[in-house]
Amino acid sequence: MAASLATANATCHTRSISLPSRTHPLTAKLEDHLCRLRASSEASSSSSVCRRLSNLTNLYGHVDDMLQLPQTQKSLSHERHENWVEEVIDGSLRMLDVCSNSRDVFLQMKESMQDLELSLRRKRSGDSGMVKEVSKYMTSRKKLNKVISKCYESVKSSTKKCVPVNSDKSNANALVSLLQEVEDTSFSVFESLLCHVSLSKTQSKTSGWSVVSKLLGTKSLSCEGEVEINEVEKLDAMLLRLNSKNVNKGINSEQMKNVLKSLEASEMHIRELEEGLECAYRQLVKARVALLNILSH
C-alpha cells in the first residue's frame, strides 16, 4: 500500500500541464514574426522601421492569443509561484515603460518640428530671424537627444535583465524560452527605433557641409548604390548646415522651400512611427492584462 501511494505521488509530482507545441499554429505564427523582426534588425530605412513596429504589434497580438489558450492559462496558473513567472511579469512592465517613453520622445519631436515649421512660414525669405529659429530648434533637438540617449540606455539595461530562468518542467521551459525570445526581440525593435531618430555625436558637434559628408559617409549603401538616409537625418543635416551660417544672414527662398519640404516629410514619418507605437502600446497592455488576469485566478 505504501509503495503504491509513493508511486502515485511520484506520478502526480512529475505530471505537467501541456502547452502549445512547436507545431501549434499560434506557436508557428509567433516564431514567424520573431524571424521577421530578427531579419530586419539591420535595416534602418524609414519603411523598414515602420514595418518592424507593425510586426511587433502583430507579434504581441499572437502572444495575447496564446495566453487565451486553456492549456497556457492552466500552466501559468499552476506555475504562478515560480521565479520565471515573476520575471515574465517584470519584463512586460519594462516593455510598457520603454514603449511609453518612446511615445513621449516622438510626441516631443513632432511638436518641435511643427513649431519650427509654423515659425518659418511666418517669416519672409532672407529674414535673419529664420536662422535664429533654426538655431532654437537645434538647441531643443540636442536636449531631446539627451532624452533619447537615456531611453536607449534604459532599453539596453532592460535587455540585460532578460536572462534565462531555470525550471524543472520541460513544458514551462518551452514557454519561458518563447516569451523571453519575444521580449529580447522586442527590446531590439525599440533600440533600432531610438537609434533611427537620434542625433549622432558627429552631427551634434560638427557644423556645415562636413556634417552632411560625414553623415553620408557613415550610412550603408542600398542595392542601387545610393546612400540610405531617413527623413529625420536629412532634416538634421540640412538644419545643422543652416545653423552654421552667420545669424545676421537670412535663408533664401530655395533653402526655405527645401527646409519646409524636409520638415513636412519628417513630420509625416514621425507621425507614422507615433501611430505605430500607439498600436504596439495598446497590444502590450492587452497582453499584460491577460497575463495578470491568469495569475490572479
UniProtKB/TrEMBL annotation:
It holds the Pfam family BPS1. One of its GO terms (biological process) is shoot system development. InterPro entries: BPS1_pln. This is Protein BPS1, chloroplastic.
